[in-house]
Amino acid sequence: MRIVLIADTFPPLRNSGAVQLRDLSREFVRQGHELTVLLPAADIDDSWVIERIDGVQVVRLKAPKTKDINYVSRTIGEFLMPYAMRRNLSKSPLAAQKWDGVVWYAPSIFHGPLANSLKKRSSCKGYLIIRDIFPEWAVDMGLMGRGLPYQFFNSIAQYQYSVADVIGVQTPGNRSYFDSWLKKSDGKLEVLQNWLGKPAADKCVIRLNETSLAGRKVFVYAGNMGVAQGMDIVLQLAEKMLVRPDVGFVLVGRGSEVQRLKTYAQERSLSNVLFFDEIDPDQIPDLYAQCSVGIVALDPRHKSHNIPGKFLTYMQSGLPVLANVNAGNDLSTLILNEKVGQVCESNQVNDLLELANTLLEQIHSDPNLSSRCINLFDREFSVKSSVQQIIKALSHE
């Protein structure tokens, strides 16, 4: 099939969404499909730039800046983004191109107008991959009320849903958010598990044996450190574990909370914590090979269900997890049923401390723990099955 994928993140960006979409794109090509990826680009001089990456046609279209700016400017930029992309696509060699299916990835919630335009032009189906149920999660966390800003963002999200023929959510627990859409639509809702391809085995620039944590059992967190992650409790845990000279913590990545977290660690003399800037995704397996436990952190105010991309990277590398998540999250059930780690749902540091110590004992006593992680990844999070599921949905009459 000839597929077009609309997104707002892709390599050379290194966030989990960019890595996921890179892997998904490679797999579309591997399975014999023709894939074009449409991306907004604020930093190009021309209206469009076309590249070829791993057999994928990547089209970067001039659009307003939406990353690393204040919320108001970002909102305006994202609102204008699909219209700018549509206009500049019409100036490109693909102006009259038709596709057999349109796929788009949320976040962002603003792709609806472009997806709708391409669907109509091609008379084909559209598949919306939902990884971020915004603005609902912002309301859950108290970042937004249900006033005018919420009404604005919700109307944008609802329009995006209305464009889709099929919506793929992360977990069964997220189905309830789409009850009203199902009642008003002929569309289909299904669970599309997160996925991850096999990374290259590049040597990591971070060498823990050359740091103050050499020889320790290391808890690692690699990913975004923003408001949604609730990272404070991780540093509180590290402070509680200062009495254990055999344990350390490594936090790798970027995000709005990084500087505040670094200040917190400095003020409390957390000698067992090291921060590093984000690294190339292909270096992640080598980083994890130096560690003992992967950390999953989600702000407990979340009510939606989330299987973070970093959880997949831990499983892929055979790394058991220590998770601090909102109560009732589908991720908790998965971790406990599969026996691949420990989960705290109380958001209490003493509870997390007890679970951390339990997990360290398990690592020592359970020789099958790592293989269970790898087996779970192979069974549930294959990028091959994700592409097959999307193609089936777009092909079905």
UniProtKB/TrEMBL annotation:
It holds the Pfam family Glyco_trans_1_4. SUPFAM superfamilies: UDP-Glycosyltransferase/glycogen phosphorylase (SSF53756). It comes from the Bacteria. PANTHER family: GLYCOSYLTRANSFERASE, LIPOPOLYSACCHARIDE BIOSYNTHESIS PROTEIN. This is Glycosyltransferase family 4 protein.
